[in-house]
Amino acid sequence: MHLPPHAIRPDYAGGSVLNLAATLGAHHGVPTHHAPYRHPLPLDGARHVVLIVVDALGAGQLRDAVTRGDAPTLASLTPAPGPVTSVFPSTTMAALTTLHTARAPAEHGYLGLTVWLDEAQAVVNLIRLYDVYTHAPLEDAGFLAAVPSLYRQLDNRGVAAHVVMPAAYQHSVLTRWACDGAEYHAYAQPEETPELTAATVQPGQPSYTLVYFPDYDLICHGSGPDSPEAHAELRRTDRIVGDLLAALPRNGDTLVVLTADHGQSPQPPDGYVDAITKKVMKTALRGPVAGEERAAYLRTSSDYHAEIAALLAPHATLLTADDAWTGGLFGPPAHADPRFRPRVGDLIAVPHPGHAIRRPTSPAPMLGLHGGWTAEEMLVPVLSVRV
Question: How far apart are CA 158 and CA 162, in angstroms?
Answer without folding.
Answer: 13
